[in-house]
Amino acid sequence: MQDRVVLGKTPQEVDSRINRELLTNVLYTERRYWMIVGFLALVVALAGGAIGYMINQGIGVTGLHRPVFWGFMITNFVFWVGISHAGVMLSAILRLAQAEWRRPATRAAEIVTVFALMTAILFPILHSGRPWRTMYWAFPYDFARGIFPNVRSPLVWDPTAITTYLTSSIMFVVVALIPDFAVMRDRTKGVAKAIYRVLAMGWRGTPRQWRLQIVAGFLLSALILPVFVSVHSIVSWDFGVAQSVEAWHSTVFAPYFVIGAVHSGVSAVVTVMIILRWLFHWENYITKDTIDSLGRLLIVVATAWFFFFVIEILFSIYTLEDAELALRRMQLWESPYSWLFLTFILTGYFIPVPLWLFKNVRRSFKWMLITTILVNIGMWIERFLIIVPGLARKQGLSFSWSTYHPSIIEVLMVIGSFAFVSMNILLISKVVPLIPLYDVKEGEILKDEFKIGKATIPATMREE
Fold first, then answer.
1. 398-422 pLDDT, tens per residue?
2. Residue 221 CB partners (closer than 8 Å, separation 6+)
3. Helix (H, G, I), strand (E, B), or coil: what is residue 450?
4. How far apart are CA 132 and CA 193, in angstroms?
């Protein structure tokens, strides 16, 4: 049975209460909010100092050296691109599917997508050691010697796909925010009112404006889906087309990466929603039903990801190639990779998914917070295990064995990236409502039912 939260007796009471409770984070601030933001800003500043030191001293201050030239920074890049897939999964796909329980989660998922993508873009640029030289990826810099970017390389497609995805995600967020900007315009004064007036773009809530806003939302939902699939597929091809690395040639890499990204992204959104619910007192909106539905979705997504994971392992064993088998032996049985593999598979699947099968766990905020954090610990390690062990082995074009020990600089950068995304989510919560007001109000209207005889029918029918 669902937990129905009654927000008022009349539509006016419901409307007023939703505005009051969901705008609290924008209009008022508790001390603990600024304490958390201050702590995150300190961590980001430390990471910024580490980045500045690396740029000043050179890439040699990291643990990267021949033949392991991709380490924590590229692992973090792949991880954050994966997290960004939550926005489309929860917002676009569930909007097209008209899943009612999506309403409190969509805005948080879209915001997570935007900041995760911004963070992901930073890491390949930092990995270059001299960030300003990354412009050579896009523009030829020496016509005389015929030096041009290799347009056949997925390393060139990456920035195109990611910037397209980032642009469309921002448009998606802005279109959905227009009615809420109008609410903010009507409840603020001075400079803030002037800014919200511009952002609201003359919104008055007329039937024509609502129709255009809904059509725009559906069109963007449909258009963003191919971009969503292409982004992590192209990231997988960064690995798949590398000739010299033994473990990176599996043909299931693209769907394996995409479904893994959805697994980690949806888990991240659940983590963020539970933390925001605690911070902003959104008990009436992020309910047990919401996380129960997300838990059910996660079981399906995680199991699909596990299927592709098993297929990827079986494909490598099926070839019976000595190099491939030796690499799998290294990942599974040689320390420290064996311990990392065990941690990854336990935290990524075998601990959370059996727990999610229990309704009490899916409806527990504490357990859902713990299990979704575990998933992302596991998924980060998964990316590390894809990248580093393959590079560490002596191969045809690398000619030497080695291993990889991340430096404190890289560790600070990884920790700083988590603080950077968290801080930006909290800062944006002071500007926009992180639960869409109009979407929640529409959901309240659609919940109304009345009885005719023994039958219970909805009071309002949705126009298809």
1. 666 778 888 999 999 999 999 999 9
2. 91, 92, 93, 95, 96, 172
3. strand
4. 39
What residues pair up with 425 in beta bridges, in sequence order? none
Spatial neighbors of 208 by CB under 8 A, at least 6 apart, are: none
In whole angstroms, give the CA distance from residue 43 to residue 62. 19
pLDDT above 50: residue 308: yes
Measured between alpha carbons, how far is residue 166 from residues 204, 227, 322, 360, 397 in Å?
A: 28, 10, 41, 37, 35
| Secondary structure (H, E, C), 210-236 | HHHHHHHHHHHHHHHHHHHHHHHHHHH
- ∠ CA 353-278-84, nearest 5°, is 55
Strand partners, 457: 450
Inter-residue contact 437 to 183 (CB < 8 Å): yes
pLDDT band at 289 (very low <50, low <70, confident <90, very high): confident
Q: Are strands 455-458 and 449-452 parallel, antiparallel or unpaired?
A: antiparallel
Token pair listed for 342: 């065990």
Query: Which helix (H) or strand (E) segment is 449 a member of?
Result: strand 449-452
Rounded distance between C-alpha atoms, residue 1 and residue 187, angstroms: 37
Residue 231: name the closest of 165, 154, 153, 170 by CA. 165
Q: Tell me which residue has tokens 């590398």.
A: 242
Closest Cα partner for 205 from 442, 464, 448? 442
- Name the one residue in this structure whose structure tokens are 């930073």: 122
Q: How confident is the model at residue 342 (pLDDT cuts 50, 70, 90)?
A: very high
- Tens digits of residue pLDDT in 422-462: 999 999 988 888 888 877 877 777 666 666 666 666 555 55
Q: What is the mean pLDDT of residues 253-264?
A: 87
Q: What does residue 262 show for φ and ψ, rounded to 5 degrees?
A: -65, -40
| Phi-psi label, residue 129: left if phi above 0, alpha if psi -120 to 50, beta otherwise | left
Q: How far apart are CA 16 and CA 361, in angstroms?
A: 33
Interval 120-160: pLDDT, tens:
989 988 988 888 877 776 666 666 666 667 777 777 788 88
pTM of the entire structure? 0.88
CA angle 204–205–207, rounded 5-degree value: 125
Backbone angles phi, psi at 348, to 5 degrees: -80, -25
pLDDT above 60: residue 59: yes
